[in-house]
Amino acid sequence: MARLVLLGTPPAAGVSLTALVRAGHDVALVVSRSDARRGRGTKATPSPTKRTALDLGLDVTDRLDDVLEIGAELGIVVAYGRLVPARILQSLPMVNVHFSLLPRWRGAAPVERAILAGEAETGVCLMRLEETLDTGPVLASTRVRIGEREHLAPLTNRLATLGAQLLVEALAHGVDALPAGTPQQGEPTYAEKVRAEELHLVWDRPASELQRVVRLDRAWTTWRGERLRVLDAMAHAGPAMPDQDDDGAGLPGSLEGPRVRTGDGVLELLEVQPAGKRPMAGWAWWRGTRAQPGETLGGENERR
Fold first, then answer.
1. Where are the domains of the chain?
2. Model pLDDT for residues 97-119, shown as the tens digit of each residue
3. Could you tell me the CA-to-CA distances from 144 to 99, 114, 260 in Å, in that order?
């Protein structure tokens, strides 16, 4: 079994970490981000990967240079969130579990970008790490169909499990048995982090596009000046946006029950969360709004 270090931050990295330990590998050190304050509390909390490592009884650090001091054979990178400099890679070779079919969606948010692009397929690649962003040769890969309404969290969980399997299989015969890998083929695309404004539901966009935003699990709009999170929704085809009626009905953002008019079709609100309240069914929220003719989600000043 190999002596390893693992670099990672989110829960997906913890899946690979757990799989490596269960497979009998010696994970000598875990590198994750430093503890950070989250939400309104003042207490700093560890990253999900650090929490998993501590539960497994492993040593954890937030100093990358520490990986050079423990005699590891290989570094494993899973959603670490930082580039590893060349001086580290020259001393310790590393492989990376990346959640896309490289060279498509190199970068920080490959799963989010695949969903927003409306893609039907993605995958996982195990690649050798280079100093440049996600450019290394691919050791192994697997393809995954994306469900038509599959959200970010369950898709990422599936990819994390498959990535951990690829990793364990690749290391089954030791670090020295790892192949050189195959150079990436095709035109690269880049997955930048999703900006906050991209999660804002702008109702003159097509319903199909808005449904993809909702699938990222952080979509929002406003209702009567307060934020309303949209946790689940379904797009329905329909005619293009009609002209405004005298009472404002038909404008993008107007409600027809829990269905919202968009620039093309309607978006049915299946689950929402008003500010300061628990998640609720879309129809239950709508019944409690007592919406008046001409009222719209988002409001006039939030339309593009």
1. 3-191, 196-302
2. 999 999 999 999 999 999 999 99
3. 10, 12, 32
